[in-house]
């Protein structure tokens, strides 16, 4: 009998096709509540999710046949990995599927913040021709601080170098050799970087250490007029005090793609035109979605066939 894969969020057609080619039965059931998922999961050998499904301990324990959980994307913070490990269920992700898209979204927000693109667009649509209030600043020869020099942070460094930016970085797991290769001056202490940066971007996972890593003390230590971007995970910047520092003009603008609770339709940032907000679009390109769908389909199929799968 064909092994059954439950897919609870929209997955690229190519990914579904790949599973069917590998002899799997892939059922797509969208927008399930946790209770529905708990009631449904016992029939399935594998589960594929993106970021909206919370794969809790209860879900995993209900999955009596469950062998593998695939995350069609990078972050696995919506999966209880400890519970899965205890239950002997593999958790895998598609670690390189969307890194280019995330790096490009970072550059997009850096540029949009520096050049007031969103505000100018809103003004044009309101029938205005107003140039004076939208004078921007160049990225060229500015200092960009990159927190997190993993795959995405590294791609951001490459792109920022092409804009002629000076790069500083903080990442306790990055070797001096890699930092040198990326052209990033590596610092051991995040506090030393804050006063240097004209722009700051974070490329860190959501962990107990990273949530709230930037709050009032860190904002106060930054350069006047700094621009902040977050395409990683909501909560790394404390948003309440970020709004206070935007209001005070200490932070000139921010580009925020991710929120502590998603979907997010209101936040202290929503009232600021210089807070450029996007609804978690970092990985949301046709190319990245196709790559994520196919990569995760391959891993899930391999896992169900008993092959070794790189775990998340
Ligand atoms: C990821 O972790 O892959 C990205 O944040 C995109 C997503 O959550 O779908």
Automatic annotation (TrEMBL):
Q: Which reaction does it catalyse?
A: (2R)-3-phosphoglycerate + NAD(+) = 3-phosphooxypyruvate + NADH + H(+); (R)-2-hydroxyglutarate + NAD(+) = 2-oxoglutarate + NADH + H(+)
Q: Which GO terms describe its molecular function?
A: NAD binding; phosphoglycerate dehydrogenase activity
**Superkingdom, according to UniProt?**
Bacteria
Q: In which pathway does it act?
A: Amino-acid biosynthesis; L-serine biosynthesis; L-serine from 3-phospho-D-glycerate: step 1/3
Supply the EC number(s). 1.1.1.95
EC class name: oxidoreductase
The UniProt keywords, alphabetically, are: Amino-acid biosynthesis, NAD, Oxidoreductase, Serine biosynthesis
Amino-acid biosynthesis among keywords:
yes
Which terms under GO biological process does the entry name? L-serine biosynthetic process
- Relate the protein's function as given in its record: Catalyzes the reversible oxidation of 3-phospho-D-glycerate to 3-phosphonooxypyruvate, the first step of the phosphorylated L-serine biosynthesis pathway. Also catalyzes the reversible oxidation of 2-hydroxyglutarate to 2-oxoglutarate.
Name of the featured protein? D-3-phosphoglycerate dehydrogenase
This chain's source organism reads Senegalimassilia faecalis
